[in-house]
Amino acid sequence: MGGTSMSVWTETEGTFKSWDGTELFSRTWKPKIPSDKAVIIIHRGHEHSGRVGQQVEDLELTDFWAFSWDNRGHGKSPGTRGHANSYYDLVKDLNSFAHYISENHAIKMENIVVVANSVGAVTASTWVHDFAPRIRAMVLAAPAFRIKLYVPFAIPGLRLLRKFKGSATISSYVKSKMLTHDRAEARKYDRDELITRDIAVNILLGLHDTATRIMDDAGAIIAPTLILSAGSDWVVKNSAQCRFFERLSSSKKEMEVYPGFFHAILYEKQREKPIKKAREFIREAFEEQIDRSGLLKADKGGFTRTEYDILRQAPGNPKAIYFGFQKLMLRTGGRLSKGIRLGWKTGFDSGKTLDYVYENVPRGITAIGRIIDRFYLDTIGWKGIRVRGRNIELCLARLIEKISAEKGSVRVMDIAAGCGRYVLNTLEEIPNSNVSVLLRDYDSANVEAAEKLATTMALENVQCQQGDAFNAPSLMAVKPKPDIVIVSGLYELFQDNVLVSESLKGVAGAIKTGGYLIYTGQPWHPQVEMIARTLVNRDAEPWIMRRRTQAEMDELVREAGFKKLEMEIDEWGIFTVSIARRVKS
């Protein structure tokens, strides 16, 4: 393929600091034409950013910056070859890279597109699903939602291998002749000493599990999406790509299948065909405005509202029998567990239950009760809640340090604090007499518990009061105005967006321009049906949740006058903690 001369761009090499401080190797292609638009190209599994220069040239987006980086453990980036602590580390690396580009090159997120191949395409999809960046579009070439593992029971076997050898590595079966018909490209692949032939088992399993979640919940993705599928792919399953495509909620989505193409679709003999399609799709995406206002009414219609309505209906058999038996066990033998017993008494979504989960100390009647309680506290939802608590503490500590350095004193308000443990823990870790805290909660019992906990921890400058988090005038009347407002685990309990918007209106009125909001979300939960069928909420009613996608939650915050700055999330993609700054009245 011919393409545009690389003299149109100036290529430079460098590094960027990722979310955990790791310096990852990166490449930049600066256009000769001044530009505020960019394309991020994510290399395939095993490969590195040095191989995507060809795609920069082929795409002929001469008025775009282009960027790429080497995944940790790949190319010129540090780390054991083919390894990372978790597959999700790669997703967070992409998030860090995109923000690095936006901040250092003055390119708005709205003017960024992502082009990703194979494993990189799953990474891109996960980022767009979980972090909900307001990017212009993404192009996914032969996304590896399901790798063809030709060995029977490969995934269970890999799980067993990881259990006995956590750092296990396997060699890829993929050869250059399975990737492309282009012999010149195959030779380049074979001779490239920076290509990593091995892959860590934990990365392969993490990819599999994350791809399963993203395929199932693809309806959360609204970014314009183009899928380029190889018709004769020996590496990944096209059926998985179709499953993902069909579930997308994107107003602009297209899928093109190229008969006879092998997996490395952007390195194939006739790659000008998918490249041309990608170029056209990207250009068209920039002709349209990004409009996410429809998300404000997602509580009235959409895939999470449909899910919510289904959960409100009685299940048919065999689910009714299964969940009925599970509920019976929780109501009988489960009561030996103190946590389960507390859940039945106060609601499994109550402040007291959450505080018990945060403490994470198994208790119960007899040793059996303590064992049951340990299993209860170790369910994935409660594990995620504890990670959320730690992420709130991290975000709060960062903001306190920043504001304290800028103005000296810091005022924090939590509008639905429960027992306020995560706030008080932060104060205990960062003793600062210039930090004052107001903990509000609708339940007087929670207010009393917060007061008791603050006294036990010998913390000063902590005020606790009863207050309605959905009463905007009450929030606006708080004096002095807080620098930081926290809303944790509240909006997830109410499916009505009008109610949430009213609360956010009050929060915006309570904070002066430039103040910060820490808010949580629950865009996905693997046990949402089990919870709805077996547990009760604070009102002793079935605990039925309508999930808000991260894009929906962010749009509600944006509509209230805030700009999202950063976000933390657990490795399972369940609970998010975001920081936003009030930018308009």
Apparent shape: globular
Radius of gyration: 25 Å
Biggest β-sheet, characterized? Answer: 8 strands, mixed
> N-to-C terminal Cα separation, in Å?
53 Å
Question: Structural class, please?
Answer: alpha/beta
Unreliable segments (pLDDT under 50, ≥5 consecutive)? none
Q: Strand arrangement, largest sheet? A: 1-2-4-3-5-6-9-10
Text of the CATH class of the largest domain: Alpha Beta
Helicity, as a percent range: 40-55%
Average pLDDT number = 94
Strand content: 15-25%
- CATH architecture of the largest domain, by name, is 3-Layer(aba) Sandwich
Number of domains: 3
Textual characterization of the structure:
By secondary structure, the chain is an alpha/beta fold. It folds into 3 domains: 6-289, Rossmann fold (3-Layer(aba) Sandwich), CATH 3.40.50; 315-380, no CATH class; 386-582, Rossmann fold. The chain contains 20 helices and 17 strands. The protein has helices at 53-59, 87-104, 119-131, 154-164, 183-191, 201-216, 238-247, 272-285, 303-311, 319-331, 338-346, 351-359, 366-377, 380-407, 421-429, 444-456, 472-476, 497-510, 528-534, 550-559, and strands spanning 9-17, 23-31, 38-42, 65-69, 112-117, 137-141, 169-171, 198-200, 225-230, 253-258, 410-414, 435-441, 462-466, 484-487, 516-521, 562-569, 576-582. The strands form 3 sheets. The chain has an 8-stranded mixed sheet, with helices on both faces. Strands 13-12-11-14-15-17-16 form a 7-stranded mixed sheet, with helices on both faces. β9, α7 (238-247) and β10 form a beta-alpha-beta unit. The model has no long low-confidence stretch (mean pLDDT 94).
